[in-house]
Amino acid sequence: MKRTVRLLGIDGGFAKIGYCVADYHPADRILLPLELGLVKTDKLASFATRACDDNILRAQDIARRLGALLRYPAKTGAVTVGAVCSEAMSYPRNSTSAAKVSLTWGVLATLCELHSLPIVQAAPQAVKKGLTGRKDASKEDIIQILQAKYPQNPAVIRASEDICKTDQEHPFDALASILCCVDSDVLRGVLRVKG
């Protein structure tokens, strides 16, 4: 029987975190997206809530929701998430945004440590170039290429129809990250060790 590895792709943010759960068949080099989605966190509406408290509550919400994705229901036997794939962390120019993105990365790193999962990263330009052949590809270019690559895939179709256009870049970036990372020496090494 051919081995399947479940991968979780993450497009890290704070207010919006894109994700993709996919099954990867290393022997055939086939990637099957199972779910693309968005984890959203909103500021609390209360004026009595301090920003620092709001950030902690939102980080805890992110931890619960990403933790649930790491236990994604196994529909093909005893498959569980074997690695997390993501674009390498890059910091926004705004220090407040950078601090919030860092909270998400801290949550992700901790969850991966608790579940003994590696995080495989690819530089944002490498993801763009690997998918489109250009380092300066737009978010729309990425989305169009992935929709063309998986025209009949139910997860890609649902994401294209159910997620508003302005938010689609996040889950599609998560899928693009997985596609780029499956070719990395790091992930191949992880798969050999776990195999």
Q: How would you concisely characterize the structure shown here?
A:
The chain has one domain (5-194): Ribonuclease H-like superfamily/Ribonuclease H (Nucleotidyltransferase, domain 5, 2-Layer Sandwich), CATH 3.30.420.10. Helices cover 47% and strands 20% of the residues. The protein has helices at 51-70, 95-114, 124-132, 139-149, 154-162, 169-181, 185-194; strands at 5-11, 16-25, 30-40, 81-87, 119-122.
Q: Explain this structure to me?
A:
By secondary structure, this protein is α/β, with parallel strands linked by helices. It is built from seven helices and five strands, in the order E-E-E-H-E-H-E-H-H-H-H-H. The protein has a single domain, classed as Nucleotidyltransferase, domain 5 (2-Layer Sandwich), CATH 3.30.420. Strands 3-2-1-4-5 form a five-stranded mixed beta sheet, sandwiched between helices. Helix 1 runs parallel beside helix 2, helix 3 crosses helix 6 and helix 4 crosses helix 6. The longest helix is centred in the first third of the chain and has 20 residues. The radius of gyration is 17 Å and the shape is globular. The protein starts with a strand and ends with a helix. The model has no long low-confidence stretch (mean pLDDT 87).
Please supply descriptive tags for the structure shown above.
195 residues, alpha/beta, Nucleotidyltransferase, domain 5, five-stranded mixed beta sheet, 7 helices, 5 strands, globular
Distance between the termini: 13 Å
Largest sheet, spatial ordering of strands: 3-2-1-4-5
Q: What name does CATH use for the topology?
A: Nucleotidyltransferase, domain 5
Q: Cα-atom Rg, whole angstroms?
A: 17 Å
- Could you give the order of the helices and strands? EEEHEHEHHHHH
| Overall pLDDT | 87
What spatial form do the alpha-carbon principal axes imply? globular
Number of domains: 1
**What is the CATH-assigned architecture?**
2-Layer Sandwich
Helix-strand makeup class: alpha/beta
